[in-house]
Amino acid sequence: MLFIVAACSTEKLSRKQVELVVGIVNYEDSKQTLKKFARFKEYLGNKTKALVQLEPAFNESIAIERIQRQSWSLVFAPPGLAALASTNYKYELLFSLNINVDSRACLVVRSDSSLRDLKDLQGKTVALGTPGAASGYYFPLYNLYGLTLKEVLFAPTPSEVIKLVADQQADVGAVSWEEFNLYHTKFNNVEFRVLFTDSHNVPPGAVLIAPNVETTNRDLIKKYMREASPTLIQEIGYIPNADVPDYKYMSAVIDRVARIATRLSSKPVRLF
């Protein structure tokens, strides 16, 4: 779904940059995302005199395809996607998204499961999120490295990961602590517990800009985003005066997972 707005400004982008496409990863309601970013779209259009499009993506897999093609001028990306875009596709980090200092990746099971430790997952079925998800894909595969699994199932959203565990289609599911706390109560008569929690904090997401946006235009966009009203900045959740996230460890995790990614569709799944 695309919404387009044209606007005027005294300091506009170069003629080559007549359109800006803003990509946003959203697991739930695209209409709510469009509503949330409506004032930002209007503000950026007024300042740049460009056509501004908002393009919500249902999950990271869709977002990766857009980033690979450099279809998104700006991206509001969760951490796994932000690390991938900046490391592999030369997107520039502009701003950190709001930080949750307690964000951790975890593996969850039903309370009646006999599984107690990571080594118990040998020969079991694991539910993951889509490629590009930090807590749902990269961190769990990094932690499961060396095991042989029965099967890997993929779910488009964290809620669907937990549902696979609830329905006993998967023995364990990979989500973040926040996602687990948000969604696990939606499954009546099923109780869960956390089997494993990664010791590293998941870094915050980021706002990134594409390498095909001219340098002068990048500087203008960054300037306008810094000068936006505090209310607007808070609405869409970036931090204009903070350091950009450090994705060094996240990039190392992505690099290791990339070596085994082609094996995930096989049965059994050898994670080495």
Structure, explained:
This is Phosphonate ABC transporter substrate-binding protein. It comes from Dulcicalothrix desertica PCC 7102. Pfam families: Phosphonate-bd. The chain is of the alpha/beta class and 272 residues long. It folds into two domains: 134 residues, 3-Layer(aba) Sandwich (D-Maltodextrin-Binding Protein, domain 2); 115 residues, D-Maltodextrin-Binding Protein, domain 2, CATH 3.40.190.10. It is 35% helix and 23% strand. It is built from ten helices and 14 strands. A seven-stranded mixed β-sheet has the order 1-3-2-4-12-5-13, sandwiched between helices. It is elongated. The termini are far apart. The N terminus is likely disordered.
Can you describe this structure in just a few lines?
This protein has helices at residues 30-36, 38-48, 60-68, 79-88, 134-143, 158-166, 177-183, 215-227, 230-236, 248-260; strands at residues 3-5, 19-25, 51-57, 74-77, 92-97, 105-110, 125-128, 148-149, 151-154, 172-176, 192-197, 206-209, 238-239, 269-270.
List keywords for this structure.
single chain, 272 residues, alpha/beta, D-Maltodextrin-Binding Protein, domain 2, 2 domains, five-stranded mixed β-sheet, 35% helix, elongated, Phosphonate ABC transporter substrate-binding protein
